[in-house]
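Morning!

This is the sequence you dropped in the shared folder:
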Amino acid sequence: MGLFNKKNENNANNNLEYSIESIIGTNTPDVSAVNITEAFSNLTNELNNELEIDKGVLVIRMQDTQELAAISTWNNGVLRDGLMVTLPAKSSLFEKVAEDGSIYTEDFCSSFSGNFFERKLLLDDQSRSFMVLPLKSEGKVVGLLAYSSQEPIAFAVFEEGKFKNRADKFASEIQRLITQL
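The structure's back. Tokens below.
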């Protein structure tokens, strides 16, 4: 079955090309955006084997406007792609992490300092910890990975740098795919 649920496959494929065009600011969809969301799904599934991830979101910096946009979510093993949700910068934890360029982890979800959209994308009622990881390529933040878990302190290993190589490789892949379009 691969990346998509069969019932969502056609709708997701129809929306993906539009979404990636909006992200990079071009009308030449030579490379499928499926590659980005597939890479996100693969990375999340890999990390979920070592951590207990409940929800995740992939956010990309749009090339033309420099705004952050959620393009894919992962919820308990189910990937939803074909999204193009431009995130408001006001009261944005994601924007702060992108500007700072440092990982942010939190073990008390009730103190989430982001906006409503970020909360809905990342957290649910059972979330006990979360993290937002800036994806850097060539010194600039090209996107963010954000994950939440019902487990407390689930993402301390990210602060220790355990997954830095994987995150760097993923950021480079995103940058490569975007520049190919």
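Headline: Residues 6-180 form a domain with the Beta-Lactamase fold (CATH 3.30.450.40).

More detail when I'm at my desk.
O.
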